[in-house]
């Protein structure tokens, strides 16, 4: 498979995954974050139920890490598809903006420019990482 095709497939998968996660209403999204934190043994079910400060801080953090990580993969896909750092950064910035615009219409969710910046930072890191990796695609 060609490098460009691999990159496009990665981008499509990241976009679909992002769209799926951002389509979840706020209560469902918070529930997913809580389950992750409980499984990691960082909070208890009581923390989640009471929405303790510890839970709120860690929940926000886990969501930001998810943004960064997903767009890191998107940055890899964008670089493979285009072969250009500038184009890759533009692509992940636009996809992050589309995602936040979409969330504006989901019950209980909102658009946050800081998330677009985190997405772009993650995508930038992914694009830079793959650019400097000595891996050959056929």
Distance between the termini: 6 Å
Instruction: Indicate the mean pLDDT.
Output: 90
The total count of helices amounts to: 6
Poorly predicted runs are: none
Assembly category: single chain
Class by alpha and beta content: mainly alpha
Tell me the strand percentage band: under 5%
Helix content: over 70%
Provide the domain count.
1
Q: How many strands, which pairing sense, and closed or not: the largest β-sheet?
A: none
How much is the radius of gyration in Å? 16 Å
Assign an overall shape. Answer: elongated
Number of strands: 0
Describe the structure in brief.
Keywords: Membrane, Transmembrane, Transmembrane helix. The protein has 138 residues and is mostly helical.
Describe the structure.
This protein has 138 residues and is mainly α. The protein has one domain (3-131). The chain is 78% helix and 0% strand. The protein is built from 6 helices and no strands. It has helices at 3-22, 26-39, 45-50, 53-82, 85-103, 113-131. α1 (3-22) runs parallel beside α5 (85-103), α4 (53-82) crosses α5 (85-103) and α5 packs antiparallel against α6. The longest helix is centred in the middle third of the chain and has 30 residues, at 53-82. The mean pLDDT is 90.
List the keywords.
single chain, 138 residues, mainly alpha, 0% strand
